[in-house]
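In this section we walk through a basic example: taking a raw amino acid sequence and producing a predicted 3D structure, encoded as discrete structure tokens. The instruction is simple. Fold the sequence below.
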Amino acid sequence: MEFKQIIEQAYQAYLENKKTVLATIVQLEGSSYRREGSQMLLREDGQMTFALSGGCIEMEVFQAAQSIFAGSPAKMMAYDGLNRLGCEGLLYILLEPLTIDQQRHQQIHQLLESRETLKLRSYFLAEDSSEGQYGTTFQSTQWPETPLSASAHKLPMKALEQFQWEIQAPFKLFLFGSGHDVAAFSQVAKSLHWEISVVLCEQSPKTKADFPAANHFYRWPELEDQEDLWDHQTAVVVMSHNFEKDAAYVQALLPQPLCYLGMIGSLKRRDKLKDYLEIRGINPGLVENIYTPAGLNIGANQPEEIALSVIAEILAVKNTKSPYSLKEMKSPFIHLLN
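The resulting token sequence is shown next.
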């Protein structure tokens, strides 16, 4: 989750007494590598967290931020890629000083941990090099609109242009199994900044140390009654390769409001699972919600390839997309990264 990482890095910079600037794409005309709402964090010592392009504009953004490091107010930067390398779009980027002190860090951390949806709103004027009382705020159903930066003592001017977007709760991935393929799967998923949990059966000798990429480690009996763990920002992949265990996991999880429930296996295993659930009186409509065999057909064979295949399917479901090659895309407005 990029926003969470940006907040963490800004807080670390605060502890190190380093100034930071937040850069946000707030308006876009034409095609771009990234969408509106994409952000990157700049430190005065040159460190950058995330990017707004494939590498075309980051140094220009850093140069434009120098005046803010020196004490000037928030400003706008326009980047016209029409006559440059990269995507042929016009980007309006809001640059604002960002201070995440202990109090602001704790506030945002608690909101994210509560799995509330955060609403971010940027106030700006889409004019290159313009300065003013610009800035970004955050709020939720339980929290009033508040400046994102702890150093901003009042809200931005409401008369300005506004861009609003939402930060969903961190996406969670639960992997049920103890094989080496689970460790490989969690390592591939880690690059997406998802919260990864590995769930083992009670008898497994494996420990947390066997899954270094996982954020959390459980044994199944611990989770049977914890319904608050499951929500629409959660994916589950069942892959213990023991049919009786996998089928029992699937049966227990079917009623939960998951974004994705998948099981690794063959077509024969899928049919066996349907028979298993039908005998136990499970609603056939619920059975159709199981993604099995899990993954997209990309010819995956190695554990990491299979993980990539399943993760791609999870992303498609999460983003309500039907996968196809971008080569077939007809629209000129191509956003490669979210």
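Looking at the output, two observations stand out. The chain has two domains: 2-167, 172-318. The two ends are 11 Å apart (CA to CA). In the next section we compare this with other chains.
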